[in-house]
Design a protein that fits this description.
Blueprint lengths: L79 E6 L2 E6 L6 E6 L8 H11 L4 E5 L15 H4 L5 H17 L4 E7 L1 H10 L6 E5 L6 H5 L5 E6 L7 H13 L5 E6 L15 H22 L2
Parallel strand pairs: 3-4, 3-5, 5-6, 6-7, 7-8
Antiparallel strand pairs: 1-2, 2-4
Helix pairs in contact: 3-4
The chain binds 2-acetamido-2-deoxy-beta-D-glucopyranose (NAG) (2 copies).
One 2-acetamido-2-deoxy-beta-D-glucopyranose binds next to loops.
Length: 299
């Protein structure tokens, strides 16, 4: 159905850097103020291998690799920006008269990222009203060296963002959207995980999550899908399988964990448009996400 129409090849801004290991003594997102790293499951972390042409310390963080091109031409946007939807600014695409809806929560780069909005448009074509809220409140992470990531993240808690999502969900329900799912990428994966501990939405999908810890899975109350990348150093396959084990024990919820071969952190929403394999992998992640939503929302 011409699903890939509108993807324009662009020059990526930086080389993808695969880190040998990311090991920072951070017990959990809450305890460390959300520094963005997990405790490495490996007892002896290997040194980071950094070969970026842009030598900035923040580039050591896998979440900040291959940042979105904010002026990328993805062939236009089907939706519109709504200035107050449950107190949030949001990109809304698809009819607000649908009873089926999906909330997509961005990574650190925020709700303006053209590729994210394109994903939202494509999900909307499957019969959903898709809402991409600005849970970073006009203050997404930028590569501004004057404001290192470690400082920025302190004022952008995904747990608080999940609280701010609740009035949006209420507003959507008031608009007649009775079946709502939530998807999140990276930082948004933690937001979606927090929401999945409630019954605010019916289903959740998290793609290459950041800040999510194994214990989170014990509290999940709705069907959850986890899409991980084989080369993700932040939420590596090993961690994804620990999530799966915890979900197996959490008898309350259906769950599905999939690891995409050769996929780095960020693969579902910050892929390299010039790399056909990366484009196909991101497409597959989106299709898998929609199938999971369909399964629980189109009953
Ligand atoms: C993107 O893909 C193209 C084609 O495979 C490759 O030449 C380029 O180096 C890639 N860019 C990044 C940032 O990986
Ligand atoms: C970003 O996208 C714009 C518009 O397509 C393009 O002109 C520009 O070269 C891109 N920048 C990078 C760094 O890829």
């Amino acid at each position: 159905m011409g699903d890939d129409a509108g993807i324009t090849p662009t020059l990526p801004r930086c080389l993808l850097v695969f880190l040998a290991a990311v090991a920072v003594a951070a017990a959990s997102a809450e305890e460390n103020g959300g520094a963005g790293w997990h405790v490495s499951p490996s007892p002896s972390p290997s040194p980071s291998v950094v070969s970026s042409s842009r030598a900035r310390t923040s580039k050591h963080h896998p979440c900040l690799e291959n940042p979105p091109n904010m002026t990328e031409n993805t062939g236009g946007e089907a939706g519109e920006v709504v200035h107050d939807y449950g107190g949030l600014e949001a990109y809304v695409t698809g009819s607000r008269r649908f009873h089926l809806a999906v909330i997509l929560v961005s990574d650190y780069y925020g709700f303006r990222a053209p590729k994210l909005r394109k994903i939202a448009d494509k999900v909307a074509l499957r019969g959903y009203c898709v809402v991409v809220p600005d849970l970073l409140f006009g203050d997404p992470y930028t590569d501004d060296p004057a404001r290192p990531f470690e400082e920025w993240i302190k004022t952008h808690s995904p747990v608080e963002a999940a609280e701010k999502t609740k009035p949006l969900i209420a507003a959507m329900k008031k608009d007649g959207m009775s079946s709502i799912g939530i998807g999140g990428y990276c930082w948004g994966g933690k937001v979606a995980t927090e929401i999945s501990k409630t019954k605010e939405t019916k289903v959740a999908v998290i793609s290459h999550p950041a800040l999510v810890v194994v214990e989170d899975m014990n509290e999940v109350k709705i069907p959850i899908e986890i899409l991980g990348g084989e080369l993700d150093t932040l939420s590596p396959p090993k961690l994804a399988h620990q999530f799966e084990d915890a979900l197996d024990k959490n008898k309350r919820v259906d769950h599905f964990v999939k690891i995409f071969p050769k996929a780095p952190h960020g693969f579902a929403c910050r892929y390299n448009t010039s790399d056909p394999f990366a484009v196909r992998t991101a497409d597959e992640a989106r299709v898998d996400m929609v199938k999971w939503f369909d399964k629980y929302l189109k009953l």
